[in-house]
Amino acid sequence: MNLNATLFAQIVVFGILWWFTMKFVWPPITKALDERASKIADGLAAADKAKLELANANKSVQEQLAQSRDEIAQRLADAEKRAAAIVEEAKQRASQEAAKIVADAKAEADQQAIQAREALREQVAGLAVKGAEQILRREVSPEVHADLLSRLKSEL
User: Fold this and answer.
1) How do residues 28-49 score in pLDDT, each as one tens digit?
2) Residue 128 — very low, low, confident or very high, per pLDDT cuts 50/70/90?
3) pTM exceeds 0.85 for this model
4) DSSP-based three-state secondary structure for 2
5) N or C, which terminus of the chain has less Cβ within 10 Å?
6) Is-contact 131 149, C-beta < 8 A?
7) 63-121 pLDDT, tens per residue?
8) SUPFAM superfamilies, from UniProt (predicted)?
9) Rounded (5°) CA angle 143-144-146
10) From CA 18, how far away is CA 31, in angstroms rounded?
């Protein structure tokens, strides 16, 4: 056996194997690797995009929460103002009603005082007439007149 022929035959067989591998085996492997690398790159890009979207969504949610808090605080302030206005309005109505009741009571008291004065005048006039009648029926004397006047005073 010749070592050079064996070595040359192995080189030829290796060359054929290399050519066969490069022609038929290597392209599907590189294609599969490229597809896998593309899928991985797409997945990483999608993950980055999803992270950005998540960050934007979180930022949007925080902004909406802050806006909602501000809106709720504004509504509470408006409600408190409205409640204070309602209370103030109720106080004004109550004071007006109280003033009206007091005015009505004063008017009624004044009217009753006038009626009492009129009744008292009528009684005094009646007593005066009665006293004068009694004086005129009796004889005219200072002692009797003084006695009648003292009884008249006690009746008043």
Assistant:
1) 999 999 999 999 999 999 999 9
2) confident
3) no
4) coil
5) N
6) yes
7) 999 999 999 999 999 999 999 999 999 999 999 999 999 999 999 999 999 898 888 87
8) F1F0 ATP synthase subunit B, membrane domain (SSF81573)
9) 65
10) 18
* Residue 152 CB contacts under 8 Å (≥ 6 apart), including other chains: 127, 128, 131
Q: Which residue has the tokens 């290796």?
A: 14
Are 127 and 156 spatial neighbours (Cβ–Cβ below 8 Å)?
yes
Instruction: Give the C-alpha separation, 50 to 57, whole Å.
Output: 10
CA neighbor of 134 nearest in space, from 147, 117, 121: 147
Task: Find the domain containing 111 and state its range.
Answer: 3-155
What is the CA 139 to chain-centroid distance, rounded? 91
